[in-house]
Amino acid sequence: MAKKRKSSDEIFSEGRVPNQRLFAYSAGIAGQNMDYAFINGWLFYFCNNVLKISANAVGYITSISRLWDSVNDPIIGALIDRHVFKRTGEKLRPYLVYLPPIIGLLSVLMFCDFGVGSKAAVVLILVFYLLWDVFYSMQDVALWGMLALSSPHSEERARVSQWTAIGVTAGCALAGIFPLAKDFAVSNLGISMKTVFFVGSLILGLGGQAISLAAGRMKESVKEDKKEGESFFEAVFVLRHNRTLLLISLARFLEYIKLSVPWAYFFESQVSYKVGGMEIGGGTSQFIYGFLTGAPGTLAMFAATKIVDLVGGMKRVLILAQVSSIALRTISFFVGFNSLGRMLVTVLLMAIQGIPANMVNIAQRSLMSDSIDYVEYTTGKRTEGITFSMQNFTTKLGDALALFINGKLLTLVKYNHNIAMTAQNPTFMKWQWPMFILGPVVGAILYLIVILFVKDDKEEKKTVERELKKRRAELAEKAAQELEKIST
Question: Which of 360, 203, 375 is nearest to 297 (CA)?
Answer without folding.
Answer: 360
